[in-house]
């Protein structure tokens, strides 16, 4: 008996007054996420956070030191030690790329993303999900040559949104997007 009934004053739709978007100021992006997009976001986070860079640098220096001490101590180059050293260098260099590829495997199957950036926040839709984020989630953003990277407010910057500039298909879209970001969050 309750099926199909809409009680007076009840709105069962997912859209609330907070979700209403002013179409004149909103910027729409349509894009397919790429591994390179995530890699840009991870690099921006790394530059701002710096602990990852520091830890990877210390780890690499320790391995270089270990390899040099063992090579000098023996008076010759040990094949196993050299192979391990090269493996560590490869892992330290490739770790962000592995992370980006992993994120791509998680999100890439969802297909095309349709993001709307407005004074209310960012709404990102795919065929399988919808994510709505208000501006209070973000500490700021950084602009790169091809992306806008929004960084979360948490101390470890565990969440980041990457908006590729290639997704903006209107003439003044990038300037409007930049203006919205400047108005609601800060450049970091």
Shape: elongated
SS elements, strand count: 7
Taking the sheet with the most strands, its summary is: 4 strands, antiparallel
Percent helix: 40-55%
Radius of gyration: 23 Å
Average per-residue pLDDT, rounded, comes to 85
In percent terms, what proportion of residues is strand? 15-25%
Order of helices and strands: EHHHEEEEEEH
Number of helices: 4
- Kindly report how far apart the N and C termini lie: 55 Å
The low-pLDDT segments are 1-19
The strand order across the widest sheet is 1-2-3-4
Structural class: alpha+beta
Short description:
The protein is built from four helices and seven strands, in the order βαααββββββα.
What do these coordinates show?
43% of the residues lie in helices and 20% in strands. The chain has 188 residues and is α+β, with helices and mostly antiparallel strands. The strands form 2 sheets. A 4-stranded antiparallel beta sheet has the order 1-2-3-4, covered by helices on one side. A 3-stranded antiparallel beta sheet has the order 5-6-7, covered by helices on one side. A hairpin with a 3-residue loop joins strand 5 and strand 6. It starts with 26 loop residues before the first strand and ends with a helix. The relative contact order is 0.18. Residues 1-19 have low confidence and may be disordered.
């Amino acid at each position: 008996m309750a099926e199909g009934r809409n009680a007076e004053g009840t709105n069962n739709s997912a859209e609330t007054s907070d979700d209403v978007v002013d179409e004149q100021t909103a910027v729409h992006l349509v894009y397919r996420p790429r591994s390179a997009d995530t890699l840009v976001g991870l690099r921006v986070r790394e530059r701002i956070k710096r602990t990852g860079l520091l830890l990877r640098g210390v780890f690499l220096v320790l391995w270089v030191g270990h390899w040099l001490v063992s090579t000098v101590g023996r008076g010759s180059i040990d094949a196993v030690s050299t192979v391990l050293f090269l493996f560590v260098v490869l892992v330290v260099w490739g770790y962000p790329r592995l992370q980006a590829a992993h994120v791509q495997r998680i999100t890439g199957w969802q297909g095309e993303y349709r993001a709307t950036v407005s004074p209310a926040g960012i709404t990102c839709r795919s065929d399988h999900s919808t994510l709505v984020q208000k501006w209070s989630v973000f500490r700021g953003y950084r602009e790169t040559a091809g992306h806008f990277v929004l960084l979360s407010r948490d101390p470890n910057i565990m969440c980041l949104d990457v908006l590729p500039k290639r997704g903006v298909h209107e003439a003044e879209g990038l300037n409007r997007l930049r203006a919205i970001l400047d108005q609601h969050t800060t450049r970091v």
